[in-house]
Structure to design on (273 residues):
């Protein structure tokens, strides 16, 4: 049995990014530990969702524990920093925000957990945090440094396969345009469906070294997403899409590991452990 520590910025990031590899590791008999930098204080929540006097962070902590149980996590830890909001917002610079935390200090906190757990594997995010969110970028910086301090042997940077997502979006938009042109019953309008994604979204396929097929665990990912009901509603992008589309978008989890590649050289983060 080995130990995977998976490090994330906010509650709900864990199931979206790494829910599949977490459940896979658990079912293979490994120990899974979830560390979250913030409690997601600046998330959006629908009016009337919270109970009188309840703070959003309290609900999000509860949701994290519920999702963690679904994914097979044996330990959940919060580093205690505050959500920094989106890039360029005033929350970035508030005292206690994760974005303003000295990397060495935050890395020391995470490294202590890595040492205590004798972690074999750590997951973080790529150097742009997947899409440029300040807390996600900070997860990369803090996580890489913590692994150095603790001597954690395998560090995987979760990323989004930009080329795969682009291919999927182009195919979906083309199908919608065809259906609209034919005017068939139930035809989906192509209007509003992008046929490309920003160049700062994820990484090109050429930089990715790991691809883990987690389609066998996609139901656990969706169930864990539902546990984060304050942020992921049934009408959300994640839960409203058809099952086959969900499997395409979230059925493979992609990673970058220094020293691997070129190309996909790993299909299991826990191989050989």
């Amino acid at each position: 049995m080995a130990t995977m520590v998976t490090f994330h910025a906010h509650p709900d990031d864990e199931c979206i990014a790494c829910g599949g590899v977490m459940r896979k590791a658990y079912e293979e008999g490994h120990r899974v530990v979830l560390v979250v930098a913030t409690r997601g204080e600046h998330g959006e929540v629908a009016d009337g969702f919270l109970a009188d006097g309840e703070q959003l962070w309290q609900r999000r902590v509860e949701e994290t524990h519920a999702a963690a149980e679904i994914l097979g996590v044996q330990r959940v830890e919060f580093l205690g920093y505050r959500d920094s909001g989106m890039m360029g917002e005033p929350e970035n610079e508030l005292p206690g925000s994760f974005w303003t935390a000295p990397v060495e200090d935050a890395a020391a906190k995470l490294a202590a957990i890595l040492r205590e757990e004798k972690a074999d594997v750590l997951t973080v995010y790529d150097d742009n945090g997947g899409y440029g969110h300040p807390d996600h970028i900070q997860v990369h910086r803090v996580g890489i440094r913590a692994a150095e301090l603790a001597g954690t042997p395998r560090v995987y940077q979760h990323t989004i396969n930009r080329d795969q997502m682009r291919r999927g979006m182009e195919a979906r938009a083309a199908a919608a345009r065809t259906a609209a042109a034919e005017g068939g019953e139930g035809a989906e309008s192509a209007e509003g469906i992008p046929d490309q994604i920003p160049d700062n979204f994820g990484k090109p396929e050429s930089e990715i070294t790991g691809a883990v097929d987690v389609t066998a665990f996609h139901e656990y990912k969706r169930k864990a997403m539902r546990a984060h009901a304050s942020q992921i509603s049934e009408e959300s992008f994640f839960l409203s899409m058809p099952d086959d589309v969900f499997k395409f978008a979230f059925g493979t989890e992609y990673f970058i590991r220094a020293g691997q590649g070129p190309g996909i050289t790993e299909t299991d983060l826990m191989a050989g452990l």
